[in-house]
Predict the 3D structure of the following.
Amino acid sequence: MNYIGIDLGTTNSVISTFDGEHTRVWKNKRDQSDVTPTAIYVDKRGRRLYGSDAYHKLAQEKQNTASLFKRFMGTLTKIDFAGETHTPEECSAEILRELFKNLPEEIRSSDDNAIVITVPAAFDQMQNAATLEAAQMAGLGSRVALMQEPVAAIMSIMKERQENGIFLIYDLGGGTLDIAIGESLEGKVNLLAHGGIAMCGGRDFDRVILNKKIIPWIREHYQVPADLTQEPSLRQALAVATYWGEMAKIELSVDGQTAIQGETPGFDSSGQEIYLDIPFTRQEFNDYIRPYVHESIEAAKETIHEAGLTTQDFDRIIFIGGPTNYKPLRDMVSQELGIPVSLEVNPMTAVSEGASIYAESIEWEKDGHERKSERGEVQSAADLGLTFVYVARTADTQARIAAHLVTPVTGYTFDVSTEDGSWRSGIVSLQEDSQVEVPLQKKGDNVFSVVVYDSQGQPVQLEHGRIVIVQTVATIGSIAASHSIGIEVKCSSESDDSTLDYLVREGDELPARGTKYFRAVETIRAQDDNSLNFKLWEGDIDTAVEDNRFIGCMTVSGHDFEFGMIMKGAQIVCDYVVSDSGSIELNLSVPSIDEEFCHKNYYSREEGAIDMARAGSQVAQDARDLLRRIKKIGRKLEGEARQQLKALSERVSQITLIDNIHFEPEDVKKASDDLLLLKRQVNVIKKKNRQVIRQYELQVLQEYYRTERQQWATEDETKEYGRLFSLAEKAKGKHDAAFENILEQIRYLNYRVGCHNPRFISSWFINRYMKAKYLPEYTEQAGKLIERGIAILNDASRADELLKINHVLSQMCVHNGEDVPDVAANIIRG
């Protein structure tokens, strides 16, 4: 089998193979380089160029060139170039096909290829799914698996040095930062923890050079508008200027100073051609990237802290990725963390080489592409009940073969020899747990022959007398999950509040598998349009599910089965697997109708994907919502917690500016990722101050009841308020979501009681439904209902009619700012 590893990078990609003993990086046939720039160019005749040929066209013809599309994998963002529109996955598929051309024809045409494509640990589920989709588009076959880049880097590191110890992997690529902690012990590697930043890499360094050095210089020397992006020719000039800035950045790796020089296609308002000639020093560049490096160091410290380690526990830092070729960056990181630098691997090719090594460790013939077992077993003589058990895979130079017998035998012996006869164990008495140490003389397959002799010294007929032990570069022990992944469930069949039922928690060992049991909260009949919705989220916030990253929805609708019905309360069995790379496989069955829904994949990442070219206003609105929540929480807290919230609010305020139309999709993606991180930090503060916040929230609801609802409540409703307030008092000290669930019930009761009050009904209509946005198919109908509502607004005797209008309009509204119905989770634990 051909073991192939692919590092599909943001700016550069690499392909390698592993033959069981050695790795080989296959050079680009166009320029004999180990790396292939991740770029596509289309010339005037429609001819496509890739790699360095395409990359160098960025300076002259950016409009005909595609690059950096990995940053948008898993989103709906389109890549427009040369009059074409493609998805990031389609562009990535082209690069994969081009990389494959670097391989010899014997491998390209083989049906026996096994391929591992690496993804950043910071990638979410949608990005992982998109990468597999790109591999399918590229026609790479069914033997394709994903692996986190830090794990691949560890495999490459172990190829060079197999010493025991703990090391930090600092993997800074063109688009992402991965931080990983690896432990090597007797050739077995454990990935203890990892973290990182999804939008932090060499591309960000290029952008800061443009914004802080090049654009100010252009404004000083040429007559240009305040916003250079308003004119197409100037936008093109900036694209070219970014290229020249990157060239200068590379020169600073070896020189203390250089110049950003080159022609651009831009002209200022006086008609003068814009030519760059900008002095640029290493010190300036260091100052520009320092905030990014500091952010990366903080990410490393956080990962170290979460692993329960200190910097003194580490032997070395392994640097991976093109930007780490810059020595001042390595020095900053090493000095700040106090961990020595190691340069034992090629930062540009280590991930690809490690991926090819990892490909050999996968059991490709099994579903799910699980890792091969480290334990081997051969049933050698059924009549004797004889089985040989052995270490099938090890990085050690020795292994052990042990004999197991169902019943004892007398006078029997055995010996073990290498297949080529170069080593022999000698005669060993055959007893229960007899053991032989065998030498492993080479990397890869070491083949041994076993011969068993009876009490007369005659060979015994064996069904299997051949044992293969693989000496590996390294074996992977445990891999920690980089994200928590959960299914949204309603807290109860009567509650609108929801929480997460986790499939895997961040830091849990992968692969993870198990079974979850749920129950339907509504009836689904065969051939119905209704469906059971399994909403998947990535994150650790279980009391405000929407603050996590929505990664898709798995549904079972009435159209998915022909007969019967899934009754309310029916049990749904969910079998799941979370692979080494964090990818999810879910299979459902409903015992009550004897149906299994595993013949197709119901999970759809598209439902959670976002077009970053159009999402700026939504991200800004989410940031404004978070600001309001921070302000609300801040009123309840004092001291350090309030100061922490103030600092967070300043960062969130910057994200509210992202709805400006001139922001690039990259800016929006970065803002979206930052906002998710800030939501997590706010949630941490809330948890630390849970008691104070809950007491405040309860007091506010109690006061609202006394002043606004008590006079309208019926006797039964008054008793219900008393019961819920009592339950809330008891639940406020618990660490689960019971308190929040009770408050949700109180708020719903507030609404029900408010519906007795004509003033409340009118206010609800005016402030909510007269201002709401409606789904396109309901726009006309909603307009007529609003006209009817306005006509009876001031007639208290018709309050019940207005209330019915409110209820109908609530079903027609746009939810969450999207022009699609809000698909609600409609399952509970069970």
Residues 770 and 787 are 10 Å apart (CA to CA). The chain is about 35% helix and 25% strand. Residues 516-609 form one domain. The longest strand covers residues 257-267.
